[in-house]
Amino acid sequence: MPLTITHTPVYCLDLDQALDFYTKQLGFEVRQDVPMGPEMRWLTLAAPGSSHELLLAAVDHHIPPVDQATMREMVSKGNLAVFLQVEDINTVFETLRAAGTEILQEPIDQPYGVRDCGVRDPSGNHLRLSQPLAG
User: Fold this and answer.
1) Among 78, 83, 68, which Cα is nearest to 117's?
2) Percentage of residues in the chain having pLDDT higher than 70
3) 56-90 in b/e burial notation, b at 16+ Cβ within 10 A?
4) What are the DSSP E strand ranges found in the chain?
5) Each residue's pLDDT tens digit, 89-113
6) Mind listing the pLDDT tens digit for each residue in 29-53?
7) Residues 6+ apart with CB under 8 A from 92
């Protein structure tokens, strides 16, 4: 039986703020935005042409109440990293910086074959953006 990873959850403190960031700053496309009751929604995004989707999941709606404070703290501290590959790391980084995105690390060549940088999304999630090094 073939396996495929379809969704990766990205826990958010504010879905609309996260949606704005991932679509306007990073270029993700909305795949589904479906209300699921009065406060919950199924909100998925993907990079153009990709079948793998990010599920933007509101901490207050996807996590049991007893665990919400802990999860909010983990998200806002950046303990749940998301790794994204981009075509032009320097341009994406400068666009994010100009938009006021919190910078964790400027682009640097890594010994494992990528140029990468670190930023935070509006919820505090640590995003590792990378671009493969040539040759």
Assistant:
1) 83
2) 99
3) bbbbbeebeeeeeeebbebbeebeeebebebeebe
4) 7-12, 29-35, 41-46, 53-58, 82-85, 103-109, 114-120, 126-132
5) 999 999 999 999 999 999 999 999 9
6) 999 999 998 878 999 999 999 999 9
7) 26, 86, 129
Q: What pLDDT is attached to residue 37? A: 82
Give the amino acid at 54: L
What's the CATH fold of domain 7-132? 2,3-Dihydroxybiphenyl 1,2-Dioxygenase; domain 1 (3.10.180)
Torsions phi, psi for 94 (to 5 deg): -65, -35
Q: Residue 122 is which amino acid? A: P
If you search the block for the tokens 């505090």, which residue do you land on? 124
